[in-house]
Specification:
Chain lengths: 282, 272, 253
């Protein structure tokens, strides 16, 4: 059974005349690493909010269709329950950290659950060590760099031991080096904890090669959904205005001149491999 | 013309700029790059006098910035900051854009014309009577840019304009820069977006730890693995492809898809 | 703004730092009460001088001196007003009273971890939500200060001149600073609310706490001292009429 199941989901924000997402059908299995991308305003953030109950409980509005997360109906389950299964990391690193020290931030979730103190402490230590921020424990969030702040946010979710991590453009406000650190951390956590990852991201070059799936959205609908190698080379992706990784553009350009790689390369070394294959094939 | 001469700048105990020297001629389009904390934003704040050097001097069109006010310098050097929400405060988009013009004492008929011109230029005419707070993120960003372009400064400096922008918005920005260049404006962009720079800029000033470590052709700098590493940047993806294929005879200084395509077709002996 | 230096938390591991915030608060309130009850220059001075060693123990003398420096203006006003209306001795007494009040709260804020302060409020049966609001306000002060600076930079770059013009004009010029700041704060608060919801705020009616404030022996000892001192002072004031005695003896006050 899929861990996330959205069927025919349409949602309109209160006071809005048009739906932000329309007739969304999306099914994600446990352990998948799914990247969602699309131009500004396509509904990516709205979709994320449906996964932990912020829609409909925090944002109100008109929600049609069914959303099931880890077996729970999102419409009927409060966010405080869903938050135990779905951790969410937001785009602005600073405003999602609202306590005075990193340690308290990571403890906030387990504290809310009313867990015994030793359990809270154990989870805080584990989360901070997994993410590699134990040395920051007494620091105040406003003193940290953007990359460190996002790591704290991730740790603060991990301490709840969620099955799913949803991240809405977590690297948008970070410099490239910090962005890579955060994305590598995500991969590490997926391997170590087996969490399902739903990542909204524009930097496709950085994630295309590790994602199991890419979901392309445009104007509130899902227009493409499949393996990165299949999806990214389609002309529709560029036509919508998405920044396709340069290696995929290269692949398409070479194809126009009759050079066909056996597969869509997603990294520079895959380009090399593809060319060597072609050369051997001659 | 912007002249930075051996500028040192510190605040509290941090030395942010260590002996930076730089000249930007009228009409140039320059990208300033470097890791977080390299001093890029600190440097551009010297261009309109927001910061004054602790040592050395900065001259804008011959005027030493220590002898002029921020308002006077801003009249010729427009700074577009990263976050539009740090400046939007008016009741309508039109008023917002007119703000700088009013501050600089333009007569009201000129203000009207200029505002209309920039509204049309940035595709904001339909939104002119709306509250800036009701607009989408991309629209607010355009209003911020419009509010600087409206008073027609000679130099326009953008601080991290590509952060949080999607591909289409970046394309739009690139088009705008081209347009401004054709109007003989001087453009300076602070960014860490290597791909954006590779596509749109011919000159790069690379900074690291308060110093300028390279200043010259984009191609020469962004394909230099040593410099890239020192500045903690990633090289353009096509450059990485070129390095992977260098043993096959592909030149190491490629940046664009079209060049890589041609080089590979050559390697494979395909006529094109 | 130097006056605020003595109210800003200074990291440390001194005896005062380790005292439970509730006990320190009790001290501050006790001294404040005494400051209001006593009226003679000599008694107020004694109270003031007796609080100074605490700053030394807390290794926060320099910060406290900054606050004293910053408060000279305020104290000056108090002195002048009282001098004109009530005479020299009253002016002196009121000035010292003001200094005393500043110092008794300063020591509290200098040596109490902000998180523990919120914790203390909860222990004093104030609902968690209120303590949390207080904590979050503290948390975002430096952030808002930074935002204010960025906003000023952006608006000055559009020709806004904050230093020029009449008083009225200068006041009006703050609108382009305040509006983005307030709107930004509102936006931030929505994001904070989202983040709190997303981490199960309100999941359980009985919330645990990572750290627990427990009263130790040193807390009881200090509290005992404070109580003794307070009682002794009250006795001196009302039963021994110590202030009248001093007045007569010194022919002053």
């Amino acid at each position: 059974m899929p861990i996330i199941e959205m069927s025919k989901v349409t949602y309109t924000y209160p006071g809005s005349s048009k739906p932000a997402i329309r007739s969304i059908d999306l099914s994600i299995e446990a352990g998948e690493y799914v990247v969602i991308t699309g131009p500004s305003g396509c509904g990516k953030t709205t979709l994320c909010r449906c996964l932990n109950g912020l829609i409909p409980h925090f944002y109100r509005g008109a929600l049609e269709g069914d959303i099931y997360v880890a077996g729970f109906s999102v419409k009927k389950t409060p966010t405080s329950t869903l938050a135990q299964m779905v951790g969410m990391v937001f785009q602005d690193p600073e405003s999602q950290l609202f306590l005075l020290t990193v340690e308290r931030e990571v403890a906030f979730g387990p504290e809310n659950l009313g867990l015994p103190r030793e359990e809270v402490r154990a989870r805080v230590e584990e989360a901070m060590n997994l993410v590699g921020i134990a040395h920051l424990r007494d620091r105040s969030p406003h003193e940290l760099s953007g990359g460190e702040q996002q790591k704290v946010a991730i740790a603060a979710c991990i301490s709840m031991k969620p099955k799913i991590l949803v991240l809405d453009e977590p690297t948008a406000n970070l410099d490239p080096e910090s962005a890579l650190h955060v994305l590598n951390l995500l991969l590490d956590l997926k391997v170590k904890l087996g969490v399902t990852i739903v990542l909204v991201e524009h930097r496709l070059e950085a994630v295309a090669s590790v994602a199991d799936r890419v979901v392309i959205m445009d104007r509130g609908k899902i227009v493409l959904d499949g393996h990165p190698r299949d999806v990214l080379r389609k002309p529709l992706v560029e036509a919508i205005g998405i920044g396709v990784p340069k290696v995929v553009k290269l692949y398409n350009e070479l194809k126009k001149h009759g050079v066909n790689f056996g597969f869509t390369p997603l990294t520079p070394d895959e380009v090399r491999r593809a060319i060597l294959e072609v050369m051997r094939g001659d | 013309m912007i002249e930075v001469h051996d500028v040192w700048y510190s605040y509290e105990e941090v030395v942010a700029l260590r002996g930076v020297s730089l000249k930007i001629q009228p009409g140039e389009v320059v990208a300033i790059m470097g890791e977080n904390g390299a001093g890029k934003t600190t440097l551009i704040k010297h261009f309109n006098g927001l910061l004054k050097p602790s040592k050395g001097y900065v001259k804008i069109f011959g005027v030493d910035t220590r002898n002029a006010s921020v308002a006077e310098l801003s009249r010729r050097v427009g700074l577009v900051f990263q976050n539009p929400d740090h400046q939007l405060f008016s009741e309508t988009v039109e008023e917002e854009i007119a703000f700088a013009l009013k501050n600089f004492g333009f007569p009201s008929d000129v203000i009207k014309k200029r505002v209309e011109w920039v509204l049309k230029l940035l595709d904001l005419y339909e939104l002119k009577d709306q509250s800036p707070f009701a607009l989408s993120g991309g629209e607010r960003k355009r209003v911020a840019i419009a509010s600087i372009l409206s008073y027609d400064p000679d130099v326009i400096v953008f601080d991290e304009p590509t952060v949080g922008q999607d591909y289409a918005q970046k394309e739009r920005l690139a088009q705008l820069i081209k347009l401004l260049k054709s109007q003989l404006k001087t453009i300076v962009v602070v960014t860490h977006d290597v791909e954006f720079v590779a596509e749109n800029f011919s000159r790069v000033v690379l900074m690291s730890e308060g110093k300028i470590i390279a200043d010259g052709s984009t191609r020469r700098i962004l394909t230099d693995s040593d410099l890239i590493r020192r500045a903690r940047l990633t090289p353009p993806q096509i450059t990485q492809v070129a390095w992977e294929l260098s043993d096959l005879g592909v030149p190491k200084d490629l940046m664009w898809v079209s060049e890589a395509r041609d080089a590979i077709l050559r390697v494979l002996g395909v006529k094109y | 703004m130097r006056i605020l230096a003595g109210f800003e938390f200074k990291r440390g591991d001194t005896f005062i730092h380790r005292l439970d915030p509730r006990v320190k608060l009790a001290y501050s309130i006790a001294i404040f009460t005494l400051a209001m009850i006593f009226t003679h220059t000599v008694t107020l001075s004694v109270l003031f001088l007796s609080s100074l060693p605490l700053f030394y123990i807390a290794k926060a003398v320099r910060k406290f001196l900054k606050t004293l420096q910053g408060s000279l203006f305020l104290v000056g006003i108090v002195f002048v007003v009282n001098f004109i209306t009530l005479g020299f001795e009253r002016a002196l007494a009121m000035s010292i009273r003001l200094l005393l009040i500043i110092s008794c709260f300063s020591i509290f804020f200098l040596t109490t971890y902000p998180e523990d302060f919120a914790e203390a409020l909860v222990k004093l049966k104030i609902p968690y939500e209120f303590a949390l609001t207080f904590t979050m306000a503290l948390r975002f002060v430096p952030t808002l200060a930074r935002e204010a600076q960025l906003i000023m930079d952006a608006q000055r770059s559009r020709g806004l001149e904050l230093e020029k013009g009449s008083f009225l004009r200068r006041l009006r010029n703050f609108i382009p600073i305040l509006v983005p700041l307030i709107v930004g704060a509102i936006r931030k608060s929505i994001r904070v609310a989202e983040a709190m919801e997303s981490r199960a705020f309100g999941a359980s009616p009985k919330r645990t706490s990572l750290r627990e404030l427990k009263l130790e022996r040193r807390d009881y000892a200090f509290l005992a001292l404070v109580i003794i001192m307070f009682v002794a002072a009250i006795y001196a004031k009302y039963f021994l009429a110590i202030e009248e005695l001093i007045s007569t003896f010194l022919r002053f006050g």
